[in-house]
Amino acid sequence: MKLVRFGAAGAEKPGLIDGDGDLRDLSNHIADIAGETLSPEGLAALAALDASSLPRIAEKQRLGPCVAGTGKFICIGLNYSDHAREAGLPVPTEPIVFMKATSAICGPDDDLVIPRGSTKTDWEVELGIVIGKTAKHVSKEDALEHVAGYCVLHDVSERAFQNERQGQWTKGKSCDTFGPTGPWLVTREEVADPQNLSMWLKVNGETMQSGSTRTMVFGVAELVSYLSDFMSLHPGDIISTGTPPGVGMGLSPQRYLKAGDVVELGIEGLGQQRQLCISSS
């Protein structure tokens, strides 16, 4: 299934994309794409519905983040060996873990706000994992049973905030609109191999990133298992799994986003995003 949330920010309704690409309303069946809905039982109940019987939404709708109720937004740094090389850093021997504020989460096509004082706002296309069942000390072999599905994530970063100010990476990753999520939550059974998905990102029509999840250092199952040893993972939690090379920081000369730029990005089978960059008010 491709699950979506549509409508005005803060008032989204749950829906799905049917086999013809039409938006269908799930409001009569669930309150939101969150909590128990993401469990294996909840997703099985949705899969049993006749999509053609659901109300069809013909009018164009804003798409919100494809999952609600996210308690933790966990990010993995330098998880592509070729991206680590372009950053001039060693390939990690264990996952580099940092947090992104959940207030950064926004819709896939919402405006990207360049924060006040920013000089180095950067782009990063990433595969997102959405947890569907609580995971604590799970094995790598059992880890995928705790995954509801996958989505496109844009891990926007302000490099000066991240690297040139004291403290942790979090403040360079957590500005408002720095976490576009969606358009869809593609349930796990729809993705034959999360370690074999092509991914891309363009700025003003120019391809900046072109990669594949094949080059991830730590794969989906390993990340879920690893993280579950340090914290319980709950339904709706998001794991952003790292980015391939081609970020603005790695270019020579370096290049960063400015108001008026348009960023487009996508992952094979998971849809695509488009954001207009605007100045902070």
Notes on the protein architecture:
- The protein is 10% helix and 30% strand.
- It has four helices and 19 strands.
- The chain has helices at 40-47, 81-86, 159-163, 220-228, and strands at 2-6, 13-17, 23-25, 56-57, 73-77, 96-99, 105-106, 112-114, 121-122, 125-131, 147-154, 157-158, 179-180, 185-187, 198-203, 206-212, 238-240, 262-267, 271-279.
- Strand 2 (13-17) and strand 3 (23-25) form a beta hairpin.
- The protein is globular, with a radius of gyration of 18 Å.
- It starts with a strand and ends with a strand.
Report the portion of residues in β strands. 25-35%
Helical content class: under 10%
Radius of gyration: 18 Å
Number of strands: 19
- Treating each run of at least 4 consecutive H or I residues as one helix, how many helices? 4
Low-confidence stretches: none
**Inertia-based shape:** globular
* Average predicted local confidence, pLDDT: 96
Q: Structural class, please?
A: mainly beta
